[in-house]
Amino acid sequence: MSSFMCFLLLLLVRFSSAVVKPGQFVPKAGPSTRVPYKGPGPSDPNSIYTSFLECLPTQSPQPDPSFASIIYSSATNAAAYAKTLQDHLRNLRYNTTSTPKPAIIVAPTKESHVQAAVLCAKKLDMHIKIRSGGHDYEAISYASSEPRFMILDIFNLRAVDIDIKTETAVVQAGAQLGDLYYRIWEKSKVHGFPSGVCPTIGVGGHLSGAGYGTMIRKYGLSIDHITDAKIVIANGKILDRKTMGDDLFWAIRGGGGSSFGVIVSFTLKLVPVPKVTTVFRVVKTLEQNPVDIILKWQSIMPTIDNDLFIRLLLNPAKVNKKNTVRVTFVCHFLGDSNRLLGLMSKTFPELGLKKEDCIEVSWFQSLFYWAEFDYSKTKPELFLDRRTVVISFKRMSDYVQTPITKLGWTAIINKLTELDKVSMGFNPYGGRMSEVPANATPMPHRAGNLCKIQYSLNWPESDPKVTEKYMKQAKDMYEFMTPYVSKNPRGAFTNYRDFDIGVMKSGDGFNSGKIYGEKYFKGNFERLVKVKTAVDPDNFFRNEQSIPTSQSMKT
């Protein structure tokens, strides 16, 4: 099983942890210096629950008898609280008895609930974390470095409205990509959307963080196809593209929506896809001298046909109890196998692709293939299933801007063999990614990048010693790659959140935020700070890697 496969599996495995009172959550990359809570309002979960329940009707734009059904507390309705907290938790590293738990969870079922929750959180001085229910690499949406916080869990807001006549989709931020893909498939077999291959990814985080998928070379990033959005800002108002203005609309398409407010929906422009697409997976062992094949892959992918996407995977394996690396080329081609074979024979014969390697599928079926399901037997309704396997994991990212030499690739494979746990995925750029200016959206890593790297480690154990061992492996590999990746700054991908590249420090928000901010956003970071300062000057919406305000600059 590929270490890059998405979390949605046929078997549900849930890990529970004791519910504890909120405590101090300290990201290893840099502890928060925020002092213990001394502000207005109660501090224990039961009192917070009561105060919040009393507040919601006073801040709601309309009378609503359902407020009591959307608030959960460990002291009041513990079973529902624990289930809601665990249902959308993804990383065992952040599911221990020492992991701080929210005082309350609010799970809105309508937009007015979001408005009221934001206003009450502000009134009661409650730090708010926003969770849309998908992958969250560093638990930014459900753990906090501040001792008194709540989760605004928008998983109930998952409606998807497809209009094939206008080729648009309105999708609520609590939906997952599986919801979006299923609803598109219901209405059309020749439309799709360029975003991730894992159906359990949450729409809110994926789209606001610049999601991508196997059509990246053809259509660019998900954010390039957002035409409108609705967001609740700190004053409780709901804004759309017209009322939020160009700057905020620019910022939430790649700058991470949770720095600016609570995104409740996106309007998307669907893209055309052929009735027949082709996938393949070709595996090479080290005995087959794959480095020369990798070199050819590296040289052709930036300029090859935009319909072609071939991901390179380097995965650890064991043969006769000895460490080795398995080299895999995974493809999605927007066309039939005959056209693909013709293209490959001319441009990439070194791979040795054969007719029997190619599988013709619809675009929708290709998503099952990439998620490693049997596309011919799996029911489409599986994409509506939110059940997951929960594991411990670590992810990091890099960008390659100059070709890696043969000696370099050999050294990388040798290092992976030595470490025996780290996997690497190389996602090729070029095509449409080379045509969109770096400042068109906050996500700047486009032209000039050969590929993006994702480092991946998964382990089932929750033992701290095991976690320490594998976290060290991750750091060792990341440091080893320094000569081969982008510099000044060393780039990183927003949706692959990584606390090891920096976290927000209280009292020095701008300067600490600039460290990770420039890695994620390069020259766009300063514009994001200006938008943040204008929209949320009090820094109400914040997290360990949020956009700082200019007022937080240390003097």
TrEMBL record:
Signal peptide positions on this chain: 1-18
Location of the FAD-binding PCMH-type domain: 98-273
GO molecular function (one): oxidoreductase activity
Stated name of the protein: FAD-binding PCMH-type domain-containing protein
Manganese as UniProt keyword: no
Source organism, top-level taxon: Eukaryota
Cofactor: FAD
InterPro entries the record matches: BBE (IPR012951), FAD-bd_PCMH (IPR016166), FAD-bd_PCMH-like_sf (IPR036318), FAD-bd_PCMH_sub1 (IPR016167), FAD-bd_PCMH_sub2 (IPR016169), Oxid_FAD_bind_N (IPR006094)
Lineage: Eukaryota, Viridiplantae, Streptophyta, Embryophyta, Tracheophyta
Pfam families the record matches: BBE, FAD_binding_4
Family: Belongs to the oxygen-dependent FAD-linked oxidoreductase family.
Keyword Nucleotidyltransferase listed: no
Species this protein is from: Mikania micrantha (bitter vine)
Keyword line: FAD, Flavoprotein, Glycoprotein, Signal
